[in-house]
Specification:
This protein is of the alpha/beta class and 208 residues long. It folds into 2 domains: 52 residues, no CATH class; 126 residues, no CATH class. 21% of the residues lie in helices and 43% in strands.
């Protein structure tokens, strides 16, 4: 049956995102190109393309300054979220799975904070897999305490926290598996990878 207008199918997760609008993004690119050409006029020996391999981090610096000074413009809404996942380049993102099945999901975030709320979600029969990858930004996942859980988390720089355990510094790594995980028919395996930022998995509620 085709959902009526205004209805959402059960395999959609609610998403709230923050993004740079098109005009702001174009303006940022123009500013960066202007600075490059100005620098080349002042220092004729400077060759942009030859130096690009060393200077590309300036793009991240400029983008970070823009985000700090101007902030992100947020929009609320829903995005179709079939099992393959959801990806975002710039901006904060929140995924909500209340009343939704998990199954096999992957999501990635390049620049920005990511929050995944699994409270009220439903496990599919067997092992459910939730994979998260981020480059710059914090990742926080809320998990129902009654979900049999296995966690595999790795980072480059930042803290990894779960329950009362915290790994910090360079190349942190945290592994966990509930005692009843192998024997459970429905269970969740969360895999997190991050480059720069904190990774947090927090159990919510009481275990059965």
């Amino acid at each position: 049956m085709t959902p009526r207008t205004g209805e959402r199918s059960n395999n959609m997760a609610h998403v709230r995102t923050g993004t740079l609008n098109g005009r702001s993004g174009t303006g940022l690119i123009i500013v960066i190109l202007g600075l490059i050409f100005l620098f080349q006029n002042i220092y004729p020996e400077f060759r942009f393309w030859r130096s690009l391999g060393k200077l590309w981090p300036l793009f991240l610096v400029a983008l970070g300054i823009y985000m700090i000074l101007n902030g992100l413009k947020f929009r609320r809404g829903t995005v179709d979220y079939i099992g393959s996942g959801h990806n975002r380049f710039v901006g904060d993102m929140k995924l909500e799975f209340r009343g939704k099945e998990i199954g096999d999901v992957s999501t990635s975030q390049v620049i920005g904070d990511l929050t995944v709320d699994l409270i009220g979600a439903v496990l599919k029969p067997g092992e459910n897999h939730f994979s998260v990858s981020s480059v710059i930004g914090d990742t926080r996942i809320h998990v129902p305490a009654n979900f049999p859980l296995k966690l595999s988390a790795r980072g480059l720089l930042g803290d990894i926290s779960f329950d009362n355990k915290t790994e910090e510094g360079f190349f942190p790594k945290l592994e966990h598996k509930d005692d009843n995980y192998d024997a459970s028919s429905d269970k969740l395996h969360i895999m997190i990878g991050g480059v720069i930022g904190d990774l947090t998995v927090q159990r919510i509620g009481n275990a059965n």
